Amino acid sequence: xxxxxxxxxxxxxxxxxxxxxxxxxxxxxxxxxxxxxxxxxxxxxxxxxxxxxxxxxxxxxxxxxxxxxxxxxxxxxxxxxxxxxxxxxxxxxxxxxxxxxxxxxxxxxxxxxxxxxxxxxxxxxxxxxxxxxxxxxxxxxxxxxxxxxxxxxxxxxxxxxxxxxxxxxxxxxxxxxxxxxxxxxxxxxxxxxxxxxxxxxxxxxxxxxxxxxxxx
Length: 216
Hints:
- This protein is α+β, with helices and mostly antiparallel strands.
- 56% of the residues lie in helices and 16% in strands.
- A five-stranded antiparallel sheet has the order 1-2-3-4-5.
- The longest helix is centred in the C-terminal third of the chain and has 36 residues, at 180-215.
- The two termini are 19 Å apart.
């Protein structure tokens, strides 16, 4: 695996962690916090957390999954992320199929990128000027990861959610000009076209099983 690929994978890992890197008390700030300020704070907190946790850096999947469940998911509209990746077939899926799709997709992301955590070392985050109107409900926060080698473009697409737990939530990531959801949508569409939603679920489960075997 070349250095650019590792750098890109590390960027995704950092993004997935940064979108939930705050402690629980910090989440209370989300409703009033500006989206770019939130991304900056979470990114900086997460960089410190990853560097300090040897288990995460060594690829301990239990520790990584715990980080995802307790810190990442509260800051992500993961249902929207999964629905966008699945595409039109999501609307016809049953509640059970939707739950399975979300579970398998989350596992896929964690297992795919967990090995890149060892690449997170001396990186810093630069937040680019935010282009948004005060009443925007969706926007993009653009950042850059700087460390060894070339800077890595990392953008977050966010939506402002109402009601309980209101605040900015992330539902897509752009690494080096490629949106994560769109990348998976093209892959999932082929599986759905040939074998339907259950076929996609089975394919994801099998892929996760194989990934677990390689890491075991």
